[in-house]
Amino acid sequence: MNMVKVLEKAGCNVSYNTRQTCCGQPAFNAGYRTEAKSVGEKFLHDFSDNKYIVGPSGSCTGYVRNYYEKLFNNTSEHNLSKQIRGNIFEFTEFLTQILGQEDFGAVFHGRATYHDSCGALRECGIKDGPRKLLSRVQGLELVEMEECETCCGFGGTFAVKFDAISIGMAQTKVKSALETGARYIISTDVSCMMHMQGYINENNLPIETIHIADILASGW
């Protein structure tokens, strides 16, 4: 809802397709290519009208942009897949690169650090955009942690199959965030936030995760 709020403030006419479901990434990553393709076909037709597609997740955006080409190569869905891949953008990427806007009049008081999710950083090449947006938020003190680009350890089914390693990676990430004195860990991906927040809650640590859309929609 806050993503929509910010997009509308930026002058966008936002519509939400209530028929939409998953992009198919969980099945694809688990090796179920046939099932991933079936879910992906639905995704393609749910967003077949030639409009921008904005998602609050670099993970989903990166998957559609980078793997649909392989999934739908030499199929009847190839051209539609190509159209969708050109239309889909992660939220902060859309704000800074397509709309060219960075200041939304947000006010958020607190010390925070930013987590570069693997989906945003490695799949979409997003690095500076979120930081530019956060630098415009009044009252927000943004400090970099040493492990800002290190994976948080979630990785979908990785967290289930290799839970001990996954938890250890979350520990490293959260420890690095705590060392900055930050009260909040900001990210573009809810999956990373869920994983880190689970570790935080389990260990009663004085920090919490928050999505960048919630920050940008604060104070107005």
Structural class: alpha/beta
CATH hierarchy, class of the largest domain: Alpha Beta
Largest sheet: 4 strands, parallel
Mean pLDDT: 96
Computed Rg = 18 Å
* Topology as a string of helices (H) and strands (E): HHHEHHEHEHHEHHEHEH
Provide the descriptors you would attach to this structure in a database record.
4-stranded parallel sheet; 6 strands; 220 residues; Rossmann fold; two-stranded parallel ribbon; alpha/beta; single chain
How would you describe this protein?
The chain has 220 residues and is an alpha/beta fold. The protein folds into two domains: 2-96, no CATH class; 102-216, Rossmann fold (3-Layer(aba) Sandwich). 51% of the residues lie in helices and 12% in strands. The chain contains twelve helices and six strands. Strands 4-3-5-6 form a four-stranded parallel β-sheet, with helices on both faces. Strands 1-2 form a two-stranded parallel ribbon. Strand 5, helix 11 and strand 6 (208-211) form a beta-alpha-beta unit. Helix 4 packs across helix 7 (118-124). The chain is globular, with a radius of gyration of 18 Å. The protein starts with a helix and ends with a helix.
